[in-house]
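Quick start: what a row looks like.
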Amino acid sequence: MASGTVAGNTAQLTFEELRAALRQVGEERYHHKHPFHLLMHEGKLSRGQLQAWALNRYYYQSIIPIKDAIILSRATDPSFRRVWRKRIVDHDGDEQRNGGILRWIKLAEATGLDRERVMGAREVLPATRFIGNEYLNLVRTRPFVECVASSLTELFSRDLIALRMERMRQHYPWLASALDYFEARLTEAPEDAAFAIQYVFDHATTRAEQDGAIQALRDKCDILWAQLDALYFAYVEPGWPPPGAFRIEDGGKKDEGRRG
């Protein structure tokens, strides 16, 4: 899916121009504009719909350290590996602290889901599984600098996370004590993004390589958007979960959680 240099425009972007181009991708394609997130932030999702989101998003969360391990396995620079391995600890945790995966499970449990049910991932949507695996394929097969660039949704995730926390406390107060995952990402994501964008600028040394990095970020945004497309189709309109997927009537209608 990588694109080449735009015809007639071969000048290498400065750091600020590259940052602006990446941020423009976020403005146009990041999933903060998806109807499912808009419903969430307006307090219009039921408890069951939030359960479906938490369960499916867990699958994505669970593959993030696998994705980062693949990137580490391809890295030849020890200084890069020393920085990047922090991401795995952030999600997997270590002897001193819980990681993002356990924090996400806490959020899923607050929606009323059982931990084993979430971790088993047997009821995730087929599209969720396919899309998550596609992200792993991206970092296995694309040029290394594009793999790093695909992480740069972190450039604009902080604003979405801050908004989500505010709106969840407002509309879904029964989740307020389980937002630890988002709280941690408020500091983790900007730190990770600062390293990644500098790496991309330093190692995408031609305009074609810079364009490839920008395209990789578009592709990552498409992955996140498609995840929400699947959730919207299955649990909002028309509300048609496929066989074997989580069904709201099986575990989600008590205390619908809507306001307004």
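That is the whole record. The chain has one domain: 15-236. Residues 1-7, 251-260 have pLDDT under 50 and may be disordered.
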